[in-house]
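thought: fold this chain, then report.
action: predict
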Amino acid sequence: MREEVHDCPWPSGIPGLFESHRRHERRDAAEHRQRILEVARRLFAEHGVEAVSMHQIARDAKIGQGTLYRRYAHKGELCMDLLQQRQERLGEEIAALLTATATSTALERLDGVLTHVVALLEEQGALLIPVAGTDARYGLCGESDNSRRFSLQHAGYFVWLQELIADLLAEAVERGELASLDVPYTADAILATLHPMFYHFQRQERGFSQGRILQGLRRIYIDGVKTQRNTEELADV
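observation:
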């Protein structure tokens, strides 16, 4: 029997999500930004993200606070810049995963995507919390300039991830792996569970392990919505 090969979306990882604000960046501006990020990374590692203020970052980077705020409206934006490289690497990892599992079912590939995303949340949680908090607390720094307010849900990474999850769910429905369901709603529900603030709450307040969270996602959004045919096939294995 001929194996089906599924197209791999975004074979080059996350396409151009983080290029727009750097495309025309001058060399001196790029070097300036890199110095800020290096100082922030060091301070965060030494003291924790929440304990470090924008004033400390400006002082240690030897720049004025006004200069820092013109580049980063709040700490959430700065953390997002630090996260971009890791997110781009995640895109490459997921592209490689989808290529390697091209003959697997859509649900198996979705499982792999969720595994990688949960691993990112575990690894980068300290940076993701200020980013996620900007909607409610403007990056934990008290900024109140609504004109520069940052929305995690509109960040390129999350838009890309929502589209990827929705595509895999739609494919699973089309191929009979899932019963008919509201794909956009289900993709949003999965992303809500993967929101950094909610993940932090489950890890720190509930005391759930990384493995328990991932297993819960699988039970609800993969095993819990499979068609009866797939359920019977699993029981026969």
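thought: worth noting. The longest helix spans residues 106-142.
final: tokens above.
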